[in-house]
Amino acid sequence: MTASTRRRITAKELQDDIDAFYALKLLTDYKPHDPNATVEAIAPIVDKIRAKQEAIIAHQVALDAMRDDLNDSSLELHGRMGVSKNEVRAQYGDNSNQIASLGLKKKSEHKPRRPKKVKASE
User: Fold this and answer.
1) What is the percentage of the chain residues whose pLDDT exceeds 90?
2) pTM score > 0.70 for this model?
3) Which stretches does the entry tag as region Disordered (predicted)?
4) What does residue 29 show for φ and ψ, rounded to 5 degrees?
5) Dist. CA 97–CA 106, nearest whole Å
6) In the chain, how long is the greatest CA-to-CA distance?
7) Residue 61: inside a domain, yes or no?
8) Alpha helices per DSSP H over the chain
9) Is the distance from CB of 5 to CB of 26 less than 8 angstroms?
10) pLDDT > 70? residue 43
11) Does residue 1 belong to any structural domain of this protein?
12) Which residue, among 52, 51, 55, 28, has the nearest Cα to 39 in the 3D structure?
């Protein structure tokens, strides 16, 4: 099997082609032998590319707005859940099963702190 002859072109190559097309439009005496090389034949392709690029930008803007909204909602949820966890602590106590049901450690599950050993000076 042979490898596919189709490949993606770089953004620079595409922009160079679009720039060349606009330069081609300025050549008033351009009369190609190949009908596929006329400005009229190429213009719909450039228009299609520009429309797709604009659609991608519009979708990206919408995606960014949704991502920002999701982040704002996440921060709001996190803040309210922090308040709720504190309310559960206040209502049921630090050593209750209700604390554990929220995914928090009971006070009795924490390791006790040992005092630091003081080195004797010589």
Assistant:
1) 67
2) no
3) 86-122
4) -100, 20
5) 8
6) 101
7) yes
8) 11-25, 39-92, 97-101
9) no
10) yes
11) no
12) 28
